[in-house]
Structure formats: structure tokens, C-alpha cells
Amino acid sequence: MRLTAQAAVLGALLAALLTWLMINGKGEMDAAYVRTQRTIDAIALAESRMQHDVLRARTGLLRNYDPIVAHLRDMRAALAGMRAANGPDDGEMHVLAEAISREAQMVERFKTGNALVQNSIAYFDSLSDRMSEPDIDPRLARAVAALQIRVSELARDASPERLDAIRARLDALAAAPWGADRGADIGAIVLHGRQLLDLLPQVDTITRSLPAASSEAARQALLEARRALKDRRQARADGFRLALYAAALALLALVVRVGFLMRAGTVILRRTIVFQAVVARATNLFLASQPDEIEGHIVDAMAIVGEGAGTDNCYVLMLDGTDAVHLWNRPGHRAPCGWPDAQRALVPEITAAPEDYIFIETADRHGPPALLQALARRGVTTFTCARMRRQGRIVGVLCFERTSSTLPPWMRHSRGLLQVVADSFGAALERQHVWAERREIEATLRRAQRLEAIGIFASGVAHNINNVLNVMLGHAEIAADALPADPQRARKQIDFLVQAGGRAHEIAAQILDYGRRGGAAQSTSAVDAIVSETVAQIRTSTADPTTIRLTGAAEGAVVDGEPAQLQQVVHNLIRNAMQASEPGAAVDVQLARVRLPERRTVSHGELPEGEYVRIRVADTGRGMDDGTLARIFEPFFTTRPAGTGLGLATAFEFVQEQDGAFDVHSAVGEGSTFEVWLPVIPQAETATSVAGATVMVVGGVRAAVQEDEETLAALGYEPIGYTDTEAALAALRAEPERFDLLIVENRPSGPLGLAFARRAAAIVNRPIVLSLSAADTVRPEVLSAVPIVDVARRPWRPTALALTLRRHLGSEMRSAPSRRDAAKAKRFQKST
């Protein structure tokens, strides 16, 4: 990455150099020289035309001087344009300007003199016309005509001889006596003639000097100076172009170099991405593990990272007081030399390093001297170590060693990811530590909550037991009154008394169970029998038994839940209806077995499609308003001074646990109707046990396993118990079809419980039931990951255990989990 940055900076500098060379290597002087040459040619053309027009004006062919003035203006304009393009005047430009200025002055003198000459010649022409009149002396006319001819020839020949001849004629004309009347004309002729003779040599001198005063030399000097400047700048531009070519070659070499660097970087990036996926796999292994499984997956995670990084050895040294070590070796490699004492000897140097991440290549001799010497003695070529922290304290080190080869180039750029691995190890161990602390705290909290709940629900317990005691007292009084006169009736009342005492015993057992573990044992209830028994008990304690009317039937339906709990639900609903009604008012209790073709929403819950038992209790009492109706299931909410507010709350909790629902309708002055909807257990689940089914029982204590075998044999199963997990697994491998179901005792540590269930599930596809003690809690997602199909709470109740086994040994239940299984899992999740 640093080389790429340097290449980028160098490339930018070369690009700037190329730009500067390109700007300075342009052949701008070629265009400037061409412009100068064209300007000089324009000046030469204008000058040539001016001289031509001067000659024409001298010979009289050009009467108007405007073309000459225009040519001078063109020359000056061209000069001004060249000055503006070239900046301040140099010596050649100044000479050219002076030459043009001299030519302009000579032209002005020529224009003045030539104008007088042409006027004089024109005068002789007009004089010849006047002298041809008849009254003119013929001799005078001939003399003037001869003079006019000589003057007109001056335009072609102005030699001194001709000028002397004209001067002699003028002198002769002036000396001859022509008369007084022609004296003025003769004087004018002589004056103009002599003026012409004086001006004509001057004009001719200017005309002859004008080509000699041409700016051609200045123009050629300027052009040569510009050509020399162009050559010098062209040579400089050629040098810049050569430098530009060299810089372009250097830039090309740099691009090729950067290309190779980028290709190497791409390879490194690709390998780094692959290694990132490896790191993610190792991290996800911890994330997908339960806290109690993390320590068992440390070596698996080291194997994933070690294979991906291509290291020879990977090990973890714990520094949290446990002195635990974990080692992974590449297949074909032995444990590192001196393991683990030699590695532990490096811990002081590792912990003393200023950074959490240490990377050493012994060939470079870079790193702490003690580490370098120790690693070199053991033949380590590359050593990478990252410290693991927990709450800012170092609790371990994760180390990678390579002895067979040096570190590949891509790994030098990706070695920082090993710190991410160490962080994930540290986080996983922190999670395990927190989980262990949390379990202790939760156990303490649960004990405190149970004690608190026992105190809170003491009034509810008294309420429920008081109802049973009222029934018992009623039956006892009736039996006492009927004993001498009607022994048969007394026996019947005593039977009711025994049943009520049994219900009271079940209630007390539930309270004791709650105090111990906070949950009830698995059981089922026959609705018809329980509702009939409850109605009969309440009738015996009322003054008018006919006020309670029982109609309908559940048609032998069986639902989940303890019979005593279901009886308490029905008992509370009937008692509340009687208390809300006037004395002697009827209370209707109706049973029905209903099949819902689709999901239905009731007042206090939702019911999926399926088969349900509906227990309806209706009265014609005072009813409830909306505010009361909204709070009827709140704990400790009551409208009776003597009420506890726990009867409907416990009933609602029981119905919810069975995935049922309440449908309540009431209006002030019109009475109330309470409907309890409970899902019916399918007939397949209530069938008899599978004859001849073989059940494997795996436990830790032989005596307990033998008791479990006796319980299963009494239920009609063939139990085979094991206390050695390896022997049990060997039996599964030898005869995978022999066993129909496995019951495994749960132990958080050791090979039993979830660890054995996971290994057994990899061998056979059989239902596995986890046997939990009263204090054990396992999360549902852990059970489904093993997989565990159900749990059995200890101490086993034969009825509940038989129902559990029948549920999972039936052929239909093996292929797909039932709705009841889902309900059990949901209740289990709530309880945990």
C-alpha cells in the first residue's frame, strides 16, 4: 500500500512534468516567424507600390497622391501590428521603423516638389495655347512653342544638357525685345521656367534616392533576426520534446510498475477476502454455539483459522487462573517443541509487550530479544500472537507458529485479522463467563422470586384451598347427618370428600412444585369428567343445586393441563357467576366440541383452525361495564371486598399455557358469558402405547437408570439402560434400527445430556427426549439445534411420561411435528 502511494505521488509529479514539457515544447516560433515574414512581405509590397506610384507621379501619369498615402499607411499599419505582436522594439525593429519614417519624409518632399514641377509644366502647356493666337508675334510664338516642347521632354529626359539648353532659351527669350504689351507674359514664362529648372533636379534627386532609401535592408535584418530567434527556440523546443519523450517513457515504466503492484495487491486482496471468510466462519462458530459449548469449540475454531492462514501450530494459553491450554496442529505436524512449558515461558514477554498484537519473523531479527532467541531455538520462522482480554484484563493469548516455511506475502498484509480472531475468542470466552455468572445470578433470582411469589400467591392459594375445604365440609356435614339413617348416601358423600381431599392435595403439590421449580408437570385432562365432577362438588355446597345447569358434552375430548388446574378454572368461573347473580338465579354451564375451519379472533386471544373444547359459563347477574371488562384478568383486580383478584388471573394463565383463549361478553344489567376454548389433543396422541417399542435410557447413576427401566417396563416398553456413553454410542452404531426412542439424562458438564444427544443424532434418526431435573432450564433453540423432540421432568409421572412416549413413537408423529408439539415448545419457551 505504501509503494502504491509512492507510485501515485511520482505519477502525479511526472504528469506535471509532462504538461510543462508539452507547453514548452510547442513550436510557437514557427507561427510567429511566418506572421513576421508575411508582415515584412506586406511592407515590401506596399513600399514597392509606393515607389511605382512615385515614378508615375514624376512622369505625370498619376495626378492624385492618395495611392501613395495609402501605401504609406499600409506600411505603418503593418509595422504597428508587428510591434504589437512582438512586444517592445528590439534593434532590428527600430531600424525598420526609422527606414519607413525616412521614406515617408522623402515622399512628402517629393509630393511638394513634384506638385510645383507639374504645375509649371501645366503652365507651359496652357501658355502654348495662348501663344498660338493670331495677334501674337510669330517669332514669339515659335520661341514659346520650342520652349514648351523642350519643357515637355523633361518628363522623359532631365539631363543637365537639356536643362542648360532650356535655361539658354529662357535667357534669350527674356533678353529679346518683344514689346511692352507682352512683357508680363514673357516675365511669367521666364519665372516658371527658371522655377522648373530649379525644382526638377531636386525632385529627380528625391525620386532617384527613394529606392536607395528603401527599408529592404532593415526588413531583411529583422527577418534574419527573427529566423535566428526561431532557430534558437526551435532547438530549445526540440530539447523539450526529447525530454518529453524521456518523461513519457518514465511514466510508461511507472504505469507498468503500478500495474504489477495493483496485480499483486489484487492477489493480496483476494486472498485477504478469502481469509476474512475464514475468520467469519470461526467467529460464527462461536456465535452459533451455546455458552456451555464454547470451550469445546475453541480447537475447532483454531483449526478453521489455522487451515486458512496456513500456519503449522495454533494454541491458546489461558491466563485467567484455570491454566487451560488448547492446541491445534496441521495434519502431519507434531505438537510444537516443548509444549506447553516452552510456550508458557514466553507469556511474561508477551504480556510485557506494549501492544496486544505481536508479529515476529526470526529472519528479520525484529521483536523482543527474549522472544526472538526462544523462537529461534525452537526453529520457529514466523510467530504471531494476540492477547485476549476480558473487561480490560488479559485472560489468555492466542498464538500461531510456522516452522516449515516463511509467511506468504498476502499474509503479511492480512495478519491484523488474527487480532480479530483473538477478539472473537476473547468475546466468546467472555460470553461463556458472563453466561456462567448469569446462571448463578438467575438461580439466585429465581429462588428469591419463588419466595416472593409464594408470599404474593398465598392469598390465592388460600382462596383455592378454601373452595375445596368448603366442598369437603359440605360433604362431611351431609355424611354426618345421613350416617345413621342413610349409610349409602353417607358413603357417597365420603367418596366426594375423598375426591375433594385429593384435589386439595394436588393443589398443595402444585404449590410445592412451583416453590421448587416454578412449573407444573406434563399431564392431560378429560374434560367431560372434570367438568361434571366440578359441577357436582359445587352443587353439594349450594342451597339450591338446581341453579347450576350442565348441558352438552365434550365427546370424550382430552386437553393438555393438570386436571386440578382445569377444575380450578371451571370452579372459579362458576363461583364468580353465582356471586354475580341474584340468589336462586340460574347459572348455565355448557360443553361442546367445536371444529374451527379457519382462524378466529375472540375477545382475549386468537384461535388457529382446528378442533377445540368450548366450556361456556353464563349468568344473568349484574354484568360488567367496559372498564371492568378490560381488567378482569389482571392479578389482584377485584370488584368484591372479600375477593383476592387471583381467581380469573390464574385461570387466564392456565388457558394461555394450553394455547387456548377466553371469549368474554358482558353488559351492565344483562349478565356475563365466559367461554373457555382449549385445543383438543388429536386421537393419535391419546392412543395406547406402541407395543414392543425399545427405549434406550442413558444416565449417570446406575441405580437411577434401573428405576427408570422399571417405570418404562410398567408402561409396556422394552427399556435398555446405559451409564457408559461410549457403550451406548457403540450400541447405536452396531444396531441403528434396534432402538425406537432415546431418553437422555441432562447434565450441563460431561459427555451426558446435550453432548451425547448431538453425537447420537449423527448416528441414528430417532426421537430423543431430554430428562430434566426440577431445577434444569434449557432454551428451546438449544433443543431444536440438537435436536431434542421433548423434555420429561423429574420425578417422572407415569401418565405424563406415557403420553410423551406415545406422542413421539407413533408413525404419524415421526414424520411431522403436531400442533400440540408446537404448543409445548411455545409453553416451554415461556417458562424459560
Q: How would you characterize the overall build of this protein?
A:
This protein has 832 residues and is α/β, with parallel strands linked by helices. It is built from 27 helices and 19 strands.
Structural class: alpha/beta
Helix content range: 55-70%
The poorly predicted ranges are 512-521, 684-689, 811-832
**Amount of beta strand:** 5-15%
Q: How many beta strands in the DSSP annotation?
A: 19
Q: If you compute it from the alpha carbons, what radius of gyration comes out, rounded to the nearest whole angstrom? A: 64 Å
Please, what is the average pLDDT?
A: 77
N-to-C span: 53 Å
Q: Provide a count of the helices.
A: 27
* Strand adjacency order, main sheet: 2-1-5-4-3
Largest sheet descriptor = 5 strands, antiparallel
Give the CA-based shape: elongated
